Amino acid sequence: AHPERYSSCSVSSAHLWRQTGARMQVDATTLLAGTARGDRARRLVGAGLADILASDNHGDGRSLAAARELFAAHGATAAAERLLAENPRAILDDAELLPVEYFHVVFTLPDTFNALALANRRVVYNALFDAAARTLLEVAANLLLYARATNAPWP
To answer: Within 13 Å and on the Cβ side, how many CA atoms surround 129?
Structure first.
């Protein structure tokens, strides 16, 4: 679980783990983080190596909703369903896990930022992912508050 936590984790090492039968659980909130762990999580998901997204919730406000929203915003609802529902159910049913398709995130910047982004990729991308994560977490929190206030169904 949580291979993204380990700085030695790479896509190539995860491929080797997969060949030995390992399955990968990636933390949904880490996927949205503008950190080295977040970068590793996105690379694993992007390579189709994540089998499950889970919320590493220990009684706080972390939720799967923000990750689901991120996938939906990029037209990857089928991948989200597989990571958040189908594969976890398969584990509970002692069934085979289904492969998860490639997931890709694209940010479009104005041309005036190209030189800055190319010269400072990690800083710029971390800032973009951090802003996206904060926005999605706020949207998810607002949706949860709305659902609770109106007794609307919550995913």
So the answer is: 23
Can you give the pLDDT at residue 60? 64
Tokens matching residue 79: 């991948």
- Angstrom distance (rounded) from CA 57 to CA 114: 37
Measured CA to CA in angstroms, residue 108 lies from 32, 95, 115, 124 at distances of 17, 40, 14, 12
- Bridge partner list, 53: 26
Q: Which residue is it, tokens 């915003």? A: 73
Q: What's the whole-number mean pLDDT along residues 77-89?
A: 89
Residues 109-143 have pLDDT tens digits of: 888 888 888 888 878 877 887 777 777 667 767 77
d(CA 20, CA 102): 21
Which of 13-17, 19-23, 73-77, 141-145 comes out lowest in average pLDDT? 141-145
Cα separations (Å) of 14 from 1, 46, 66, 104?
Answer: 12, 12, 25, 18
Adjacent-strand bridge partners of 16: none
